[in-house]
Amino acid sequence: MAAVNKVILIGNITRDPELRYTPKGTAVTEIGLAVNRKFRVENEMREEVTFVDITYWGAQAETISKFVQKGSPIYVEGRLQLDSWDDKNSGQKRSKLRVVGEGFQFLGGRSQDGSGSMGGGGSQAPGQSQPQSYSGPPAPTSEPSSKTGPGPMPAEEEDDDIPF
User: Fold this and answer.
1) CB 7 within 8 A of CB 100
2) CB of 38 closer than 8 Å to CB of 47
3) How many distinct helices (H) and strands (E) make up the chain?
4) Cα 50 off chain centre by
5) CA–CA gap between residue 34 and residue 4 (Å, rounded)
6) pLDDT per residue over 32-73, tens digit each?
7) How much is the average pLDDT of 120-148?
8) CATH number of 7-130
């Protein structure tokens, strides 16, 4: 039986990241994410907000805690995980669904104070230890491109000695 456990979210950080380290020295950070949904009910626009807790581990945790703050927009990839425990006060069984972050992409530009706290971009894919830079899509140019795409090669270029 096939199974997929993949979450993709875009939202805003609800609180500053909390960076901690396990006794063995592994970095872990937790962020809260607010994801908005707009919809129409009988000609009236409504909005609902869903709050999601996300946990990042290792180098991703350190990068997130260094470059984002409350209000920062972010793209998140991860998987769902159900945490269960016994409540110390009531003794009842409790559970919470959370996202374990496996990748991310900073969104938006630099902050107004120039500190770059929202980052110029960067992402972490599973298994990567260093962030990749991302400068966004190329800027449009006003000059038309001289290339029109692939086509037949001119006759003088077809006679070269390429063995394939």
Assistant:
1) no
2) yes
3) 1, 7
4) 17
5) 24
6) 999 999 999 999 999 999 999 999 999 999 999 999 999 999
7) 39
8) 2.40.50.140
Residues 6+ apart with CB under 8 A from 93: 84, 85, 86, 87
Q: What is the pTM of this model?
A: 0.63
Does residue 140 have a pLDDT over 70?
no
CA 125 – CA 132 distance, rounded (Å): 9
Q: Residue 109 and residue 128: Cα distance in Å, rounded?
A: 23
Token pair listed for 136: 């966004």
By the 8 A CB rule, do 33 and 13 touch?
yes
- Could you tell me the residue ranges of all domains in the chain? 7-130
Nearest CA to 117 out of 43, 67, 59, 61 is that of 67
Name the residue with tokens 């946990």. Answer: 55
Span 106-122, average pLDDT: 52
What is 100-141 written as a DSSP string? EEEEEEE-S---TTSS-TT-S--EE-TT--SPBP---SPPP-
The token pair at 132 is 């990749």
DSSP 160: S
Higher pLDDT, 55 or 118: 55
